[in-house]
Amino acid sequence: MNTSLILLILAIIGIAGYVAGARYAMALVGGISSKLHSRPGYYGSFVAVWAILPAVVILFVWLVASPMFISSSVRGAFPEEVKTQSQAEQGLSYGMITSIARGMNALTGDEIARIENNPVELRAALGAKGVPLAGDPQPFMVKAAAELNRMTFVSRILMTILVLGASIGGALFAYRQIAPRFRARNRVEKVILGSLVVASSIAILTTVGIVASMLTEAAHFFTAIPAWEFFFGTVWDPRFAAAGSGGSEGQFGLIPLLLGTLYIGFVAMLFAVPIGLFSAIYMSEYASPKVRSVAKPLLEVLAGIPTIVYGFFALTTVGPFLRDISSQLNGLVTGDYANFIQAQSVLTAGFVMGIMLIPYVSSLSDDIITAVPRALRDGSLGLGATRSETIKKVVLPAALPGIVGALLMTASRAVGETMIVVLAAGVAARLQINPFEPMTTVTVKIVNQLTGDLEFTSPQTLVAFALGITLFAITLCLNIYALYIVRKYREQYE
Amino acid sequence: MNMMSESAVEKALDQKMSDASHKMIGKDVSVYYGEKRALFDVNLNVRENTVTALIGPSGCGKSTFLRCLNRMNDTIENCRVTGKITLDTDDIYDNNIDVVELRARVGMVFQKPNPFPKTIYENISYGPRIHGLSKNKADMDQIVEASLQRAGLWGEVKDRLHESGTGLSGGQQQRLCIARAIAVSPEVILMDEPCSALDPIATAKVEELIHELRANYTIVIVTHSMQQAARVSQRTAMFHLGQLVEENDTDKMFTNPDDQRTQDYIMGRFG
């Protein structure tokens, strides 16, 4: 029986258990549901949970464990000369055995009998059935494949019996517990609570897993390259990661990338913060509800544009425009029409990224400004303050911690941004301070180091993980600080 | 012009006892919230140096009328006011009147204490500063002290003027708000259920304060508590369903009202 069919049967048993449990509970009290401790549905759910949950757990464990068990016992039966081979070669042999096993299921009994005597024909016979083999099978492989098939078959049957048995047994066990004063609701709610806990721990565990994997890879990198060379190096020149070429030692200086990241992020915030903040003030304090209901969603559309699209915009419109205007300006002033702004520059990337960040700044700040209690505004207006005085002297100071938090969150987005920078600021890792020249960021270099043909053991690729963990640490600190500030601000009004 | 000299106040107070001059006159005041009409042609005059209490069941329009007196209704969307309200001789809904100036002359204290999240000193100095009432720091210090003195809060907070105003107790916060309103030297102070969020002891202190303030200011107070109206006011106006039912001397109102509805409300038969 295949897995989806088993799951379907489990679902049917569960539904039947639900109906039976609910009915039985009602019957116990003669149809007067108020005599039950819980609503009848909870008794039904209790039976259904017992019918499904343990059976699904057994099914899952079996599905994971049985291939492992079968594989190890098949490998254990390999002839001695195969066992002396390397792990990789044994793995290849096992792969072939599974292919043969799959193919043999498609063959008739006669064909199998013929092939067992003559393994050489096997490849052709299986090829005819659409199962390709990597090489000529050896005699022991056919036997092993037959053994594999047999074990798989037995395992399937055992699993089906066990799972369905657990399901029916669980349902009966739960059904027999039902009594008028039985606390079914408490039990069912415990299960629901448990599933909520599991769901939230999955998110947390994933984060922990990501950090752990980055840390281990970064640790490999730091065994090859000393940490101080990475963190304080001023030259980024990793060379090529050609397989087996030991001599090409690169230089992995973080400083030019980190500076580029911060510089471009700073320029972006320079554009985004005033525009975003002013639009938030307009939206929350001055705009009529009609204007607000149109303008706010429009502004938030900006947040939905994929960053790669901003990248084109920078590459095809903003960059050339800045370059041309700079050459015109230069021409007007000096008579020499050479452009002083490169098409790909810190300014281009910062400007376009700033546009991307406007909706974040304005939307977050708008929420925070709107959350300032109306009583404060009334108090100020009631004293004869103008609207603008009220905003400047009461509303904004009260909202300031929250706004700072919002800006920090926005900054951490700016630091993590990749696509705009690739297209608008280029990939040249340079250590300089002219905003009209190209620079690059940490994220761009991570992409750079991890694309193309690579060897996953060289420092040239492993450096990506060191960069990643550095970036992660920066954004994590920014976010934690932002959350801290926002939380502190909330306390003021509670 | 805004500030009256002490002797003028005394004179005005004496005069009041006969037939006092009317500080504010409301004529045919109606208020609409969108399509809904909240006030129906209210004619109510506020006497100078008098505490006028506005009473009536919830939703009767007494707060709405109060907020008309310093145009706080302007801050509510869809709110429309018709009729005429004058302060002294100025029509406050006239286009020539600056609403900011009006609110400096007609201060307001709200239902819930709403000190700014600033220090006590800054809470008081906020109004004088935006209106440019002080020439220098010493001047401002004096305004702050005088306002807190008048609000009866000086003794309690003089050692912590530079701590946050939100850290005070509810009653202290409300007196801080009153001090804040006094600091801009208004002529009229509007109070919208100023004691509804306070405990009885804090309420008693605020009522005592209202009593003292009467010498210098004209006060209009909205209250849900009949006892409070009886204790603090000289004139009482009763609202019901957006209409002014009766306006009378407080003593008469609570002993022998002219209108049956007032009688019923005061006796607790409805509302």
From TrEMBL, chain B:
Residues 24-266 form the ABC transporter domain. Keywords: ATP-binding, Nucleotide-binding, Phosphate transport, Transport. One of its GO terms (cellular component) is membrane. The keyword NAD does not apply. One of its GO terms (biological process) is phosphate ion transmembrane transport. Gene3D superfamilies: P-loop containing nucleotide triphosphate hydrolases (3.40.50.300). InterPro entries: AAA+_ATPase, ABC_transporter-like_ATP-bd, ABC_transporter-like_CS, P-loop_NTPase, PstB-like. It comes from the Bacteria. PROSITE patterns: ABC_TRANSPORTER_1 (PS00211), ABC_TRANSPORTER_2 (PS50893). GO terms for molecular function: ATP binding; ATP hydrolysis activity; phosphate transmembrane transporter activity. Transmembrane segments: none annotated. CDD domains: ABC_PstB_phosphate_transporter (cd03260). Belongs to the ABC transporter superfamily. This is Phosphate ABC transporter, ATP-binding protein PstB. It comes from Neorhizobium galegae bv. officinalis.
